[in-house]
Amino acid sequence: MLSPGYDQRLAAQVQSAVADKKPIAIQLKEHLDDGTVHISSVDRDGNMVALTLTHGGVFGSQVTIEGLGLTLGHGMSRFDPHPGHPNAPAPGKRPLTNMCPTVVLRQGKPILAVGASGGVKIPNALFDVLTNFVARRDTMFHAIEAPRLNCTGTLTVGVEPAWPKVSIDYLKEIGFKVSQMESAHVGAVSFDPDTGESKGQLR
Length: 203
Description:
Blueprint: H1 6-20, E1 36-42, E2 48-54, E3 64-65, E4 70-71, E5 102-106, E6 109-117, H2 122-135, H3 140-145, E7 149-150, E8 156-159, H4 165-173, E9 177-180, E10 185-191, E11 198-202
C-alpha cells in the first residue's frame, strides 16, 4: 500500500468508476467494531492533544499482566487472516487501523484537536469533519454538526438523516445500497492563537 505509484493507480480506478457511473468492483466483508474511547484536550497556552484508545468489543487480547493490571491489546486482530488479502499478515507489515487522532496546524500553530470512537466509522467521520473544517473553512461547530457518510469498501453505504437526497439518489442509481446510520462519535477542541479562546464540541 505504501509502494510508489499505488495512489496513482487507485486514483485512476476512481476516475474510471466515476466516468462509468459504476462502483469499483472489490470484495470486502462488512466489519463491525466497538470498544473505543477518544479524548481531545487543550490548555490555556494552546497545547493540544488528541488521544484515541481501543481494546475492541472483546476487551483486547483478554490477557492481563499479573501484578500490573494492564490488559494487552489486540493489534494482530486488525490483520485479515486470508492469504493474498492486502491486509494479510506479513513480515514488516502494519495492520490497518481505524484510529485517526488528529491535530490541525495553521501557520505552524495548533488550532484543532479531533478524533472519534465508533470502530470502522471513525475514518469516514473524521474525513467529513476535516474536509469541512480545513478545505471549506467551516467553524469547528459547523464541521462537526454537518451530516456524515460511511462506506468501508462494500456496496453498503450509511448516511445520516440530513445527508442530501440528491446524493443518496445518485448513489442508489449507480448500484449502492444506501440506508440511514448513526455516525462515529466525534470529539474536538479548538484554540484561537490570537485571542486565546478555546472551545469544545462533541457529536
